Amino acid sequence: TGSSRGCFGHPPGCSLTALPPPPSTKTELPAPYGPWMEIAHDLPQLIASHRLRSHVHQLSARHLRGREELHLAHLVLSFITMGYLWQEGEEGTVKVLPQNLAVPFWEVSQALGLPPILCHADFVLANWRRKDPDGNLDTIISLPGAESLRGFILVTLLVEKAAVPGIKVGGRCRALWLFAHPESALRHPRGYPTPTRLLRGWGKGWKDNPAMPGGLVYEGVSDEPLAYSGGSAAQSTVLHAFDELLGIRHSEESSAFLRRMRQYMPPPHRAFVEEIRRAPPLRQHVLSSGDARLRAAFNRCVCALADFRSYHITIVTKYIAVAPPSALETKGTGGSHIFSFLKSVRDTTREGVISA
Ligand code: HEM
């Protein structure tokens, strides 16, 4: 036709040579946009089967299959989010997480029952792989400061691993032995891991954080800003499980914080801790048995747990000696004093001992 309107509606005079040049000679977008192309190619079938809308809704997370992939996706998206937010440090924060990150992060979080922020379950539990046949470990995802970060993540993972027998046997407390010797797990070959930017920057959340007073808008998810606490080993299931098992009762303020941290655990972990809580109390059983050996064994477990917490306080003290205290002050505990929290939790653990 020679007209720039193309030949739609003019079949007789339409000739291929007269078509305007196409905008591109390409017919496929590059790999990252594979999901767009798949939907586009499938349009006739998707529309005929009324599935196009649901495919569009699930565009971002639809290729993830099962919990393992979802956990890995949460790990990846949470690290990208932390990097995005804290790239310029505390002075250069943003108020909005862009929707190309916020929406898939939200979807994956909803599917897992985890909050859309870096949690202990990402940072430590999902973030390791075997480096060689000898069983040496490495992290999967890292951030600037990789060396010290790796030490911190893997040491914490070893503490988790050391707790596994204790978790498995539940009532049989001898597995708490490692907690009586925490230095064996907490010692790092090159000295204490000093996660210089971890607590100072990357792990911080946007709840009670003066650097982000309004929280964070997850674009495409909610117009209102949302507030979430940063990652903390206070979200580790093992200590919560031992506390419940041994019937440790923390002060109201400390338990409020620790209870809130349970919302940052994967739901099956949370359910496990709650199950221990609901089970017939071990402490009561030991008391009513009148068995001195049983009581001594129970008390050794309580002391091991208190010793672990004392040792942890030593580490935090050493860390604060090399990192600015302001780094930790607003973290997790809502700006209250970290040491009074950690000491109160340690002291109430000690009070769990059954006297003769
Ligand atoms: C340099 C190393 C470490 C530092 C600086 C550190 C710092 C802290 C801080 C500041 C808190 C208070 C809660 C918060 O504000 O989030 C805390 C709590 C906690 N940390 Fe660490 N931590 C370190 C290593 C570890 C390791 C290796 C573990 C092992 C699992 C651990 C387990 C815990 C637990 C369970 C809590 C909750 C309080 C409790 O139940 O006693 N921390 N830590």
UniProtKB/TrEMBL annotation:
Keywords, alphabetical: Heme, Iron, Metal-binding, Tryptophan catabolism
Keyword Heme: yes
Species per Swiss-Prot/TrEMBL record: Athene cunicularia
Family: Belongs to the indoleamine 2,3-dioxygenase family.
Region span, Disordered: 1-27
Keyword Iron: yes
UniProt GO MF annotations: heme binding; indoleamine 2,3-dioxygenase activity; L-tryptophan 2,3-dioxygenase activity; metal ion binding
GO biological process annotation, one example: L-tryptophan catabolic process to kynurenine
Chain residues that bind heme b: H312
Cellular compartments per GO CC: cytoplasm
Protein name: Indoleamine 2,3-dioxygenase 2
Matching InterPro entries: Indolamine_dOase, Trp/Indoleamine_2_3_dOase-like
